[in-house]
Design a protein that fits this description.
Elements lengths: L1 H15 L8 E8 L2 E3 L3 E22 L5 E6 L7 E21 L3 E14 L7 E5 L1 E6 L1 H6 L7 E6 L14 E6 L5 E8 L5 E3 L2 E4 L3 E10 L5 E10 L6 E4 L2 E5 L13 E7 L2 E7 L6 E6 L5 E7 L4 E4 L2 E3 L4 E4 L10 E7 L2 E7 L6 E8 L5 E7 L4 E4 L2 H105 L1
Parallel strand pairs: 1-7, 2-8, 10-15
Antiparallel strand pairs: 1-3, 3-5, 3-6, 4-5, 6-8, 9-11, 11-13, 12-14, 14-15, 16-17, 17-20, 18-19, 19-20, 20-21, 21-22, 23-24, 24-27, 25-26, 27-28, 28-29
Length: about 500
């Protein structure tokens, strides 16, 4: 109701104002992204502004619904209409509209109908409006539009000169610095603002060769690597060869790696003062050696023989162990290696799958030397009681000998028992044979008697049959003779 009254008053004021008064002016602008990928969202802002206070306004947003779908807005009607008034007057008013893009192409969002009235005299303001053109593209089109420029625009090492002179097409450079140089600063800028560069900053350097790489990543993801090699000049290097590897002795204390439970000291090598570590417990003197790639490691230095041995230190919560090779052997264990803290060391184990491994070394804190048991699962270590194990092995061997002795006695007794049984078996077999022969003779005799009886019976039957056969013949002859006589009588 208040808005209607305000609009009526504004309308009456416009009518009553003299025609000679010049109208206030203002602008309407639509701002936001000019390019967006299909399916993504884009937010546009509509801003009404003037150098004089605005009392009321009414605007309507226009867009192509084939390309854009309105998702959200802060307009009064939650749509395209923007209408309101101010009791105190405002010089600027903004609305936001968020759209989802529907298809590729070009479309424009604009304010096509609008009115505004000055706060002071309710006069109608003169407004100008500009829309926003949006280019909607596919993901493939977007990626194809990315810059491929992965070059550097500049490259410097503060206070020193590059060799050769910088060029975006040259990727390898060398810088030579004095031997007391401890750090250098590398600066670089990318040729394309859409690209990014990594590898710049301040870095520590040590005597010898130090290598640094800078990677330029273009907007399209392609990369280019520039390499800067910083040579810290050692005017009198102490070169060391261990196997096939070349090293130089580190002369600056700050470059040495930390050694637990050791004291800092200085020793003489080739008449140079060399920073080192020493320990009364282990009896070792440690110096730093730098390899060809710039890595520094600690080595045990033997002044008497002028030799260097790699120092392998394993740190645990309870102990710090220096691993050492030994000629001692553990009964019942196989010899091999185990990896501890990414270091492969010699070890004994019962099987490759065993949870535990036995290593030989020196406890740096106490100087105690011997075997230590390493738990692969817990990654812990403790002193290995080899004396108790050896006693168990001795007892085990004794038990083995006793068992072997008892086994031999049992075998001998078994052999004697078998021989005794065989002799008794032979005597028994003899008795059995005599009895069996006697039984067989009796059976043969009985069978012989039975045969004789059967033969006699057969002879009797044969005689009876013979007699019967004779009687039958006689009877037959009599019957035939009777028949012949009867025939003659009839005739």
């Amino acid at each position: 109701m208040k808005k209607i009254k305000y609009f009526l008053l504004s309308f009456l004021a416009i009518i009553l104002l003299p025609l000679s008064v010049s109208a206030a002016s203002g602008t309407i602008k639509v701002t936001g992204s000019s390019q967006v990928v299909v399916g993504n969202r884009v937010t546009l802002t509509v801003t009404l502004s003037s150098s004089t206070a605005i009392g009321s306004w009414e605007m309507n947003l226009n867009y192509d619904r084939n390309y854009l779908e309105l998702v959200s807005t802060n307009s009064e009607g939650n749509g395209t209409k923007m209408v309101n008034s101010s009791a105190t007057g405002v010089k600027s008013k903004s609305y936001t509209f968020t759209f989802k893009t529907l298809k590729s192409g070009s479309t424009t969002v604009s304010v096509n109908s609008y009115d505004a009235y000055a706060y002071s005299d309710l006069s109608k303001m003169s407004l100008s409006s500009s829309g926003k053109k949006i280019n909607i593209i596919t993901q493939a089109e977007l990626e194809a539009s990315y810059s491929k420029d992965n070059n550097l625009k500049s490259l410097t090492v503060e206070g020193f000169e590059l060799s050769p002179e910088f060029s975006k097409d040259i990727t390898e450079y060398t810088v030579t610095v004095p031997e007391n140089t401890k750090e250098i600063t590398i600066n670089a800028t990318e040729n394309d603002k859409a690209a990014s560069v990594s590898g710049t900053g301040t870095f520590e350097v040590t005597q010898g060769t130090n290598t640094f790489q800078l990677v330029v990543r273009a907007e399209n993801g392609s990369e280019k690597t520039y390499t800067v090699t910083v040579d810290v000049v050692d005017e009198n290097p102490i070169n060391v060869t261990i196997g096939d590897d070349a090293y130089t002795v580190v002369k600056i204390k700050e470059f040495l790696p930390v050694a637990n439970a050791y004291q800092e000291t200085t020793i003489k090598i080739n008449e140079f003062d060399i920073p080192a570590y020493t320990s009364e417990l282990t009896g070792f003197t440690l110096v730093g050696l730098k390899d060809s790639t710039g890595n520094i490691s600690l080595f045990i230095y033997d002044d008497a023989t002028n030799t260097y041995t790699p120092y392998t230190e394993l740190q645990f919560n309870q102990l710090t162990i220096y691993v050492k090779e030994t000629k001692e052997k553990l009964n019942g264990y196989e010899f091999g290696s185990v990896t501890i803290n990414e270091i492969e060391v010699p070890a004994y184990y019962t099987s490759a799958s065993s949870r535990f491994a036995i290593i030989y070394g020196i406890n740096i804190e106490t100087g105690e030397e011997g075997f230590f048991k390493y738990d692969k699962t817990d990654q812990s270590i403790q002193k290995y009681d080899d004396e108790m194990i050896n006693e168990l092995f001795e007892k085990n061997n004794l038990y083995s000998y006793i068992i072997i002795g008892f086994s031999a006695i049992l075998i001998i007794m078994f052999i004697i028992l078998i021989v005794t049984l065989r002799k008794g078996h032979k005597k028994k077999n003899k008795k059995i044979n005599v009895t069996e022969v006697k039984i067989i003779d009796d059976e043969l005799e009985e069978k012989k008697e039975e045969k004789d009886e059967t033969t006699q019976k057969l002879n009797v039957i044969e005689e009876v049959n013979s007699e019967e056969f004779k009687l039958d013949e006689e009877m037959y002859d009599k019957v035939e003779n009777t028949k012949k006589k009867n025939k003659k009588k009839k005739k």
